[in-house]
Amino acid sequence: MIMPNDVHGLIQLLDLEPIEKDIFRGISPKEDRQQVFGGQVASQALVAASRTVEDRSVHSLQAYFIRPGDLEAPLLYMVERVRDGRSFTTRRVTTIQHGRPIFAMSASFQRYEEGYEYQTPFPEGIPDPEDLAPFVLDGVPLNEDGRMTRPIEVRFVGGSPDERSPSYKPKVQAWLRATGTLPDDPVLHTCMFTYASDLMVLPTATRALPVIGYGIDFQAASLDHAMWFHRQVKMDDWIFIDQISHSASNARGIAWGTAWARSGELVTSVVQEGLIRPLQPVLTPQQDDQQDDSVAP
Known about the structure:
mainly beta, 12-stranded antiparallel sheet, 5 helices, 12 strands, 14% helix
């Protein structure tokens, strides 16, 4: 999880520069990674789309990661106004670098309407975030109040997704929140959750891979990303996300996530498919059983 240094840095990252009508420019933070973080591109694209819509909030988005993003080059977000209806608005955003598209997203916005209400209840038996240890990256200190000096704090229920074993279920549960108070801007909260949603979905699909300990030998990358926003997200309060993967095949894995506010309201759903390409021959279950147990986790 490589991110801007603090929540203010993430707010600045999401404040795109308008170039001309429906065209915006974004930048990337200085990071020790090979390509732009997918959650950054998705959240910036949603910012661009939102700036062309009035009096309506996003209710869904579907996106494809086309090419790796270059950290050194600016990102150009080009918005197409597909439709402005009485209740719904549709936007298409293409992200350009070096003259080529690297990301494409369609987003739908809706004016508020009264309607029927129901939801899946908050899962039982989930510990409070205060009873869980913060997930701390190596070399990242905590603030005086115990929060990470990163924009998003994560507290895992039942272990980090970085812990992999064939004996694990492909399931990840965690609390997350912004590491500071945010302005009362619904678009900012929604876009910040979009940024955070890319942190753990693909690792959920890789958690049950037949690898030994931390000896990971596969290529992973986000392929597509879809989100539905059921109710307003508040990122400066705790949000619980429950993620599970139901399938991995053809060098791809897919995972579903459902998120609740601490109040118990179901706020979002997210689905992502990612590339999980082995970099060495895949062992059969019989071959895997013959591995030296002394090096197993």
